């Protein structure tokens, strides 16, 4: 038997009430044997996020009450099931900055969701010139796997890599700099970039 819900608690960290329970909520699990993963928090918009492993979707919850505000949202390529290093292959990983939830993965696309509404603000990788990670027949993925490296100065830096690359390495791997507000490609450069566990290659 599996539970039909997951329970989330909020505990105070404020002096004078530290350790006290603020609220508890049962989050209904979608039908179809779906796995939920607790995501990151946007401290500015006071939201936290939950993703689904099998459907690669996101839900946004109010941090002060635990109430669902939006979701499910997300319509990514199947390969985005595999996010990036450090995730254990559980579900997509989201990164929060500037009121947006940024998501990438082996599907080769980056999505920016508005953290208050769940609406897609922009996507990168599935378009034409200046918005494409199409690998043609160079990779088995169809798109170059595209992962978020860092976010700062209203820019999102993304890189392409692969967990277990063959030799010769895929050609035309890139590091890309995107405008965090619009998703516009600001610059690209050739590189077989690597971070964390991928750095061995």
Textual characterization of the structure:
- The strands form four sheets. Strands 3-4-5-6 form a four-stranded antiparallel β-sheet, with no helix packed on it. It has a four-stranded antiparallel β-sheet with strand order 7-8-9-10, with no helix packed on it. Strands 11-12-13-14 form a four-stranded antiparallel β-sheet, with no helix packed on it.
- With 201 residues, the chain is an all-beta fold.
- It has strands spanning 5-11, 21-28, 36-42, 47-52, 58-62, 68-73, 94-97, 100-103, 110-114, 120-124, 146-152, 155-160, 174-179, 185-190.
- The N and C termini lie far apart (42 Å).
- It is built from no helices and 14 strands.
- 0% of the residues lie in helices and 41% in strands.
Residue stretches low in confidence (pLDDT < 50, at least 5 long) are: none
- Average pLDDT figure: 86
Characterize the main sheet: 4 strands, antiparallel
Helix content: under 10%
The first-to-last residue Cα distance is: 42 Å
Number of helices: 0
Instruction: Please write the string of helix (H) and strand (E) elements.
Output: EEEEEEEEEEEEEE
State Rg.
18 Å
Total DSSP E strands: 14
The helix/strand class is mainly beta
List the helices and strands and how they pair.
Blueprint lengths: L4 E7 L9 E8 L7 E7 L4 E6 L5 E5 L5 E6 L20 E4 L2 E4 L6 E5 L5 E5 L21 E7 L2 E6 L13 E6 L5 E6 L11
Antiparallel strand pairs: 1-2, 3-4, 4-5, 5-6, 7-8, 8-9, 9-10, 11-12, 12-13, 13-14
Task: Give a nutshell description of this structure.
By secondary structure, the chain is mainly beta.
